[in-house]
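Q: Given only this backbone (164 positions), what sequence would you predict?
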């Protein structure tokens, strides 16, 4: 494996690093069970990746079985225990564990434990996931057709929503 082709072609580096301070409140997706912080969204990274911190209360539902066509998704467990689905089975992950899901890979997650869970989610390339996090609960209350259109617009295909 080799490095990708250069994207920066000047001979000298430039001042372009971005430092973001932590914020006291979650950015979106906040319910009594889950909160999401936008560590580095699509806008910050120029679409290279998206990094989000997810905090889940004990016994919190996450995402049922689904896949993405355009993006990969990765999970890094910072504390607590998560139950992951890898396309074949559900299994436990804990602090320091990592799950990589390439585009097309079936996956899901939830917190079945009696303790809170904190993990990082990484989407690559970066995608406008912020709207998905902010409005998903709203669309669940709409018609099946509106919900499916919203999910497809956000590259999220739940297996129970597919036309078979």
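A: Predicted residues:
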């Amino acid at each position: 494996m080799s490095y990708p082709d250069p994207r920066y072609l000047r001979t000298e580096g430039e001042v372009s690093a971005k430092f973001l301070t932590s914020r006291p409140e979650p950015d979106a997706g906040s319910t009594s069970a889950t909160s999401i912080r936008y560590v580095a969204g699509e806008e910050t990274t120029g679409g290279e990746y998206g990094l989000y911190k997810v905090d889940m209360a004990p016994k919190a539902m996450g995402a049922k079985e689904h896949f993405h066509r355009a993006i990969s998704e990765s999970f890094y467990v910072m504390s607590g225990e998560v139950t992951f689905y890898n396309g074949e089975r559900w299994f436990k992950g804990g602090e320091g564990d990592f799950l990589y899901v390439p585009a097309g890979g079936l996956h899901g997650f939830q917190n079945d434990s009696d303790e809170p869970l904190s993990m990082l989610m990484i989407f690559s390339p970066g995608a406008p996931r912020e709207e998905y996090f902010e409005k998903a609960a709203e669309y669940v209350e709409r018609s099946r057709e509106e919900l499916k259109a919203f999910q497809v617009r956000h590259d999220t295909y739940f297996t129970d929503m597919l036309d078979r």
